[in-house]
User: Fold Fic family protein from Metabacillus rhizolycopersici.
Amino acid sequence: MFKEIDQKKALLDSKRPLPKYTLKSLREKLLLEWTYNSNAIEGNTLTINETKVVLEGITVGGKTLREHLEVINHREAISYVEEIVHKEEPLSQWQIKNLHRLVLKGIDDSYAGVYRDQQVFISGAKHVPPAPFLIQEQIEQMMRWYQSEAKSLHPVERGAMLHAIFVGIHPFIDGNGRTARLLLNLELMKEGFPPVVIKVANRLEYYDALDKAHTSKDYSDFIQLVITEVKDSINLYLSVTT
Assistant:
């Protein structure tokens, strides 16, 4: 399942280090696409060009403050992910809460980085997230899984399952999807993979694969979706090395 990805990554690794400005432009391109798509999946109406303008510090007329903050916050959250990777820090609940705090900063400060105290439902999904009093226990179970059996998984499978398990728990009132996609990329980037972009065009397939994972514990469709996105990102990096 991961043979082609491993071959592509080995090829990319053999061409490293990439030129400084090539690497900078790749980072900027992926930061924009990651931010645009992750927010668009959650209903943000800014176009990719409008998102670019907001990242440059300009406001877009007719768009809400929340939509602007979602862009700015996401950029800050990506910077935090890069910092964790650079420092080689192990994943912790503290990091997860910090990531979420950045995602929701200025949007809903009372719930930023705080596990929810109310029942929530995922629109269009069969899966119902756990009751609030079960969240801490389920997050701890996820962390135990991550620190034990997950270590033997391929990084792409581990990242995909971390995303799926986390978003199934849905520990926060809002911002779970964005935080889950940040965690997915945190896991990939730790292992030297470029970040992946779950595209808004694949939103239905993405939601269906997650709901299948949550209701039947069959993660195969979701892992396959992530594999496809990983290949796209590696191919983008390889395209500048030939």
About this structure: The chain has one domain: 14-115+125-239. The mean pLDDT is 97.
